[in-house]
Amino acid sequence: MNARAGFGGGGGPVRIGAYRNDRDLGRELMDALMLARVQFALTAGSHFLFVALTLGLATLVAVMQTRATVSGSVVHARMTRFWGQLYVINYAVGIVTGLVMEFQFGLNWGGMTRMVGGVFGAPLAMETIVAFFIESTFLGLWIFGWDRLNRWAHLALIWVVTLTAYLSAYFVLVANGWLQRPVGYEMVDGAARLTDLGAVMGNPTAVLAFFHVLFGGLLTAGFFMAGVSAFHLFRRTAEVEFFRRSMRIGLLTVMVSVFPVVVFGGMQFAQVQPTKNPRSDDAAAKAAEFAARFGPDDYLAPGLTDAGLATMMTSWTVMVLLALVALVKFPFAGWLVRGRVFHVVMMLAVPLPYVAMLAGWVFREVGRQPWMVYGVLKTSDALSEVSPGWITASFVGFTSLFAVLIAVNAWLLARYARRGPEGARLGAPPPAEPAAPALTATF
Fold first, then answer.
1. Mean pLDDT, the chain, as a whole number?
2. Backbone phi, then psi, for 225, in 5-degree steps?
3. Do 50 and 93 form a contact (C-beta atoms < 8 A)?
4. Taking the CB of residue 336, how many other CB atoms lie within 10 A of it?
5. Which of 54-63, 267-276, 379-388 shows the lowest per-residue confidence on average (mean pLDDT)?
6. Alpha-carbon dihedral sign for residues 31, 32, 37, 39
7. Where are its TM segments located (predicted)?
8. What is the Cα–Cα distance from 390 to 399, expressed in whole angstroms?
9. N or C: which terminus of the chain has fewer CB atoms within 10 Å of its end residue's CB?
10. What whole-number distance in Å separates Cα of residue 206 and Cα of residue 196?
11. Using CA atoms, how far apart are residues 68 and 70, in angstroms rounded to an integer?
């Protein structure tokens, strides 16, 4: 059966190499490849929106509960319940996006699974078995153990949740770091085999990215907390002390985390592949080397890479300026409460960390093209043996689902954030049932 019959009339799967020389089928394949790439970009980027806030907010909630447990502070206990409820909402919806996203590895990227799954899949398996199960189990105990467990045991639960959340992020970044800079493996019969787990786990590309994401999550949570607090203070809430303290915690988190984010981001440029800077001599030399080894292709990073870098740097610059303003004004508590212009600025600044992180992700991922695993496996060769029609259906289904989940998450966060601490139901005792009417006998 020829390539056209297998791809079109027969409807069966066809590998990219089977019809590269057929112009029409090649165009259909490129469309399918682009759809698969865009689908994964949208779903991975959407999932990361949840991850960033989850990492940072879990840490802040744990700190607030520690303060409440140690000192007996009532306001910090109320803050734990309010911000903890927003954390749980974001976490719950984010789980769905993470589980669905991983289906795409087997659905759209079967070639990757066959060739490098033995190495790439190892840290992802560890993330699921070691980190995610512990994190979700202890979070359930934390949610339903309120006022049922010893206060110190309950505090320990949220710290276990927080630490395993960071462990989960680390394992995922180890997997991604291997795609960027493959180490600790050998090729056996056309498939990658893990030879040095330590090299994979300690990959500088992964380690630097982990600390970048760690502080990026704190920065996201800091702007989120400051923005929600600014909303209530702008409306002249009766809960002035509650949101003044929350504003201070949010701004302090921004000030502490914004510069480490920049530092660890800058350190990663030492690990950037030469082809991500098309104007350098190293890029041209590397592209020529790839062309000699793998055949002609566009090995230099596309223009979208520069756009992602520029957007990221602009966003970080604005956030650094806001952090400096907050640092100057931080000692003046009255200004935090009455500064209405500042309240508006902080509300508008909530999306800034998200924009910066997504732009940085574009720079990191798009700049790696045309490689799925840099210098080892091309993205086109990682595509599954499925028809473009199936990939199109997958694209529409996944994208629609993620759009709904993002909308639901934003609506829930806005709804419960607007209600304030009095509307927090996390850890609240169930409403008392009305007493049964007394039975009276009539004679």
1. 85
2. -65, -40
3. yes
4. 25
5. 379-388
6. positive
7. 40-63, 84-107, 119-144, 156-179, 206-228, 249-270, 307-328, 340-363, 390-414
8. 14
9. C
10. 15
11. 6
pLDDT band at 178 (very low <50, low <70, confident <90, very high): very high
Judged by average pLDDT, the poorest of 152-166, 343-357, 378-392 is: 378-392
- The pLDDT, as a whole number, for residue 432 is 54
Pair of tokens at residue 31: 């469309």
Alpha helices in 109-195 (DSSP H): 110-126, 133-144, 151-180
Query: Any idea which residue has 């923005």 for tokens?
Result: 227
Range ranked top by mean pLDDT from 15-24, 90-99, 324-333, 357-366: 357-366
Tokens representing residue 129 in the block: 């078995």
Q: What residues does 378 pair with on adjacent strands?
A: 371
Q: Could you tell me the two tokens for 235?
A: 């409306």
Least confident segment among 14-18, 114-118, 170-174: 14-18
Residues 6+ apart with CB under 8 A from 420: 82, 232, 237, 239, 242
For position 215, what pLDDT does the model report?
A: 96
Alpha-carbon distance of 92 to 297, in angstroms, equals 42
Six token digits for residue 208: 């630097």
Lowest mean pLDDT among 12-26, 275-289, 320-334: 12-26
d(CA 247, CA 431): 31
Confidence of residue 429 (pLDDT cuts 50, 70, 90): low
The Cα–Cα gap between 302 and 74 comes to: 54
Helix, strand, coil abundance in the chain, percent, nearest 5: 75, 5, 20
Give CA–CA dist 307/289, Å, rounded.
26
Question: Quick one: tokens of 153?
Answer: 């045991």
Q: How far apart are CA 260 and CA 254, in angstroms?
A: 10
Q: Which residue has the tokens 């921004």?
A: 254
- Sheet strands (E) in 34-169: none
Name the residue among 303, 298, 422, 350 with its Cα closest to residue 52: 350
Q: Which H or E element spans position 23?
A: helix 23-71
Which residues does 11 contact at the CB level (< 8 Å), separation at least 6?
387, 389
133: tokens are 């199960």
The tokens for 120 are: 């790439």
Amino acid at 297: D
CB atoms within 10 A of CB 140: 12
